[in-house]
From TrEMBL:
Record-given protein name: DUF952 domain-containing protein
Regions annotated as coiled coil: none
Superkingdom of origin organism: Bacteria
InterPro entries tied to this protein: DUF952 (IPR009297)
Pfam families from the UniProt entry: DUF952 (PF06108)
Naturally occurring in which organism (per UniProt): Phyllobacterium pellucidum
């Protein structure tokens, strides 16, 4: 079974990555020197904390086995280990991209593994 991690990104930023053929990250990723990801268990809190009230977002599922040694799990929020990618994200590693609509009670997540 493929293990997935997740990136939340504005649709326009992701569309630019698709046109370029690689995702170099969002402004926060550039500032921190790595691309931030979340596990399935962390994604909802990430959306609440960093994307509250934002619409037109996408949830991007990425296969960890296609990222190599550039993927590191490091301590972050609440002493949890978060996946960080110290490289650009090759689009071949993306399993799927789904809308992350904003509902009355926050973002409406699709099923995640």
């Amino acid at each position: 079974m493929t293990h997935l991690i997740y990136k939340i990104a504005p649709r326009t930023l992701w569309q630019a990555a698709e046109a370029k053929g690689v995702f170099d990250g969002a402004p926060i990723d550039h500032a921190d020197g790595f691309i931030h990801f979340s596990t399935a268990a962390q994604a909802v809190e990430t959306a609440t904390k960093h994307f509250a009230g934002q619409d037109d977002l996408l949830l991007i599922a990425v296969a960890t086995d296609r990222l190599g040694d550039a993927l590191k799990y490091e301590v972050s929020r609440g002493a949890d280990l978060f996946p960080h990618l110290y490289a650009s994200l090759p689009l071949e590693a993306v399993e799927w991209v789904k809308p992350l609509p904003l509902g009355p009670d926050g973002h409406q997540f699709p099923e995640m593994q």
